[in-house]
Specification:
- With 184 residues, the protein is mostly helical.
Length: 184
């Protein structure tokens, strides 16, 4: 069943969740606080995606991937795992970015805003590449200034994606989609 109106209220939960999940608080307050914020962030992202799915449709695989991220970050709260396994939620987040942004792009196309759809896809790929570089540097044990540079690039890319999601929300929340006209 195709919806005739975009209802995007879950976008706000996703943006807030991404801010919590991406906040580099472990640099100041330690890994425990960082893991807790990651869990709350992934939980908000999952709830936001569920709202989007319920109101507008789509986002099923995004929800399942967000639940993997949430579960993995919950496990991180209660166990001391190898630092490579600790990268699992962030690696799953790359898949989540792909699934979520392609759904947003699909709805931008349905709203006939192909420019915005293009931005979602472009920002998605840039963000996935930046996140992958950050994950690789962490997995290889690159610490110090290079890892902070990779982290800053990743945070910048994520901020741009969240800004784009906010603009899409502000412009298209409640937008009436054109109904297909059938020739008789």
């Amino acid at each position: 069943m195709k919806k005739d109106q975009l209802k995007l209220k879950g976008t706000i939960g996703i943006i807030v969740g991404m801010c919590l999940m991406l906040a580099p608080v472990e640099l100041i307050f330690g890994a425990e606080v960082g893991n807790l914020l990651d869990f709350f962030g992934y939980t908000l992202i999952t709830a936001g995606l569920y709202l989007l799915h319920r109101e507008t449709g789509g986002f099923t695989l995004s929800i399942m991937t967000a639940m993997v991220c949430t579960t993995a970050s919950f496990i991180m709260l209660w166990s001391e795992l190898d630092h490579l396994i600790a990268l699992l939620p962030k690696a799953a987040f790359c898949i989540l970015l792909y699934l979520m942004c392609t759904n947003y792009a699909k709805y931008a196309n349905e709203a006939s805003d192909h420019h915005m759809s293009h931005h979602f896809i472009t920002h998605m790929w840039i963000d996935i590449i930046a996140t992958s570089i950050e994950l690789t540097s962490h997995a290889m044990g690159i610490h110090g200034i290079p890892s902070y540079i990779f982290l800053l690039i990743d945070l910048y890319c994520e901020a741009m994606l969240m800004l784009h999601m906010w603009r899409f929300y502000k412009k298209y929340n409640g937008f009436q989609l054109d109904k297909p006209v059938y020739a008789e």
